[in-house]
Amino acid sequence: MKWSELSILTTNEAVEPISNILHEAGASGVVIEDPVELVKEREDQFGEIYQLNPDDYPEEGVIIKAYLPVNSFLGETVDEIKEAINNLIIYDIDIGKNKVTISEVNEEEWATAWKKYYNPVKISEKFTIVPTWEEYTPVHTDELIIELDPGMAFGTGTHPTTVMCIQALERTVKQGDRVVDVGTGSGVLSIAAAKLGAAKVEALDLDEVAVKAANLNIKLNKVQNVASVSQNNLLDGVNEGADVVVANILAEVILRFADDAGKVVKNGGYFIASGIIQQKKEIVKDALASAGFDIEEIMAMEDWVAIIAKKK
């Protein structure tokens, strides 16, 4: 399928209204290339490396990109977008140079273009995540490497919720443990648990695309003798006791199976819950307490929270 990349050189002030115009025109998302990102200071807790190419950013102003399918209505749609942007001047919004360019993009090229932004990154005391297409030499002898190809499933391993989960697994998983990973996505948490010494890891996801991606990543990391993946809804049908249950999902979903986690986690075992926004922290804490857990630690990174809860 052919896509048209619409690129607009504008100002910071106009980013939000132009993004809204593009969404209303049918773009499912936008890319914002702001040169401020090149000099932005970032938290460097574990020696993360951020590699941004200055050639991808304008010398001045901000570039907003959107992708629209190439069809018979494309010309009309682009004209409507241009007119709507020009009309922003009426509201005293500075649209800058307002340079609009259009180019065609093959879906295959678009699907892999993101890979150039995904590089090896150390995310915790022990773990470094390395994309499968990159070469990487460990810096320390005790460094644990997770090779990852996210494919179509959510999870490059570097999102704050995932990073906190892996840090929590480092603190809770012991040699010989049984771990259940609910909503495994790319399988990164299951791989981490296996590399930390778990004897058995059960990775569960309702999405068959995620199941395939997790299976691939587990084999890439040679932990298939410990970790297995199956299509499953949360903890439905899981009866065997677990030393650790980890779930990087959403607060609303965690609330739905907190009681089931309370039944599956062994006494003295742990439930690691992540994917929680700050505003939902208290209701998740209350639900975990009601399910028989003591809140042992609350981790925070950016706007996200992860909770380590211990079964009474």
What does this structure look like?
- The chain has two domains: 2-115, 2-Layer Sandwich (Alpha-Beta Plaits), CATH 3.30.70.120; 118-311, Rossmann fold (3-Layer(aba) Sandwich), CATH 3.40.50.150.
- The strands form three sheets. The protein has a seven-stranded mixed β-sheet with strand order 10-9-8-11-12-14-13, with helices on both faces. The protein has a four-stranded antiparallel β-sheet with strand order 2-3-1-4. It has a three-stranded mixed β-sheet with strand order 5-6-7, with helices on one face.
- 28% of the residues lie in helices and 30% in strands.
- By secondary structure, the protein is an alpha/beta fold.
- It has helices at residues 15-24, 74-86, 107-113, 160-172, 188-195, 208-220, 251-264, 281-290; strands at residues 2-10, 30-33, 62-69, 99-106, 121-122, 127-131, 144-148, 178-182, 200-205, 227-231, 242-248, 265-277, 293-301, 304-311.
Features:
single chain, 312 residues, alpha/beta, Alpha-Beta Plaits, Rossmann fold, 2 domains, seven-stranded mixed beta sheet, four-stranded antiparallel beta sheet, 8 helices, 14 strands
Produce the secondary structure layout.
Blueprint lengths: L1 E9 L4 H10 L5 E4 L28 E8 L4 H13 L12 E8 H7 L7 E2 L4 E5 L12 E5 L11 H13 L5 E5 L5 H8 L4 E6 L2 H13 L6 E5 L10 E7 L2 H14 E13 L3 H10 L2 E9 L2 E8 L1
Helix pairs in contact: 4-5, 7-8
Look at the helices and sheets and give the structural class: alpha/beta
Tally of separate domains: 2
Largest sheet: 7 strands, mixed
What name is given to the CATH topology of the largest domain? Rossmann fold
Q: Using DSSP, what is the number of strands?
A: 14
